[in-house]
Write the C-alpha cells for this entry.
Amino acid sequence: PDEAPALHVEEIDVTYGRALSALRSVSLTVPHGGVVALLGANGAGKTTLLRAVSGTLRLHRGAVTAGRIRYGGTVLDGRDPVAAVRAGVVQVPEGRRVFAGLTVDENLRTGGLGLSRRAPAQVREARERVLTLFPRLAERHRQAAGLLSGGEQQMLAIGRALMASPRLLLLDEPSLGLAPLMVERIAEVVREINAQGTAVLLVEQNAGMALSLADHAHVLEVGEVRLSGPAAELARTDAVRRLYLGET
Ligand code: ATP
C-alpha cells in the first residue's frame, strides 16, 4: 500500500436521481496527515461530497457522473463503503447516529465490521485507543448509547469510526447542536486524532472552529467551490468573515 496516501477529488459532478445536480466540477485534495475544512451554507453540497468519497452516495440514490476520486492508489468513485473502509477512509455521519439500544461497547464493536480478517489483538488495540481518547466512554462502556448526552453520542460516533483505524476520517458537522464547551472538546479530539497521524476532512457550519483546526479550507456554494486557500488566509477574507464567521 501507498505509504503516504492523499485524497484527490478531481472535477467531480454528482447528481441525485435523474436530474438533481448537487456538485459541479468540484476538486480538492487532502494531503497525508492534513486537516482540510469544507464550509458552506445548508444545501451547498458538503455532505454530498463526503458521501461521494465514502461510497455511501448510492445509498442516497446519488452518483458521481463525472470526474475521479482517488485515495492513494485506489479509485473510490462508484465504489461502496466497504471498499472505502478497506482503503482506510471512514465517514462519521451527520447527526451522531448511534444505536441507542446497544451499549457503548456494542456500538464500538460495529465499527470496522467491513474489515473481515482482523486479528482480535488489532480490534482490542483500536478499542483501547478509542477509550483512551474518550475517557467518558470508558466510564460508560456498559451503558446504553441512548442514555448518553448529545456530546457523548458524537464522541461515540467518532469512536466507532476510529475502530476501523482509518487513515482519513471524514467528519460531518461534529459540532452540530452542541454547547460551546463540548464544541471545544470535540475540536481538541480532532486535533488529537490528527496528531496521531489520521488525516481529516471536516465539514462544518461552525466556520470558526473549522478554520482553527484546518490547514486548508474550501467554501462550497450551491454545488461549486467558490473559495479555496490556507485556512488562516480564508479566515481573513471579507466574504468568509461576513457570511461564515458572523462578523459585520
Ligand atoms: P446541510 O448542511 O444541510 O447538510 P450540505 O451542504 O451538506 O447541507 P447536501 O446535504 O450535500 O448539502 O445537499 C446538497 C444538495 O443535494 C441539496 O440541494 C439537497 O437538497 C440535495 N440532496 C441531498 N441528498 C439528497 C437525496 N438523497 N436525494 C435528492 N437530493 C438530495
The chain has ten helices and ten strands.
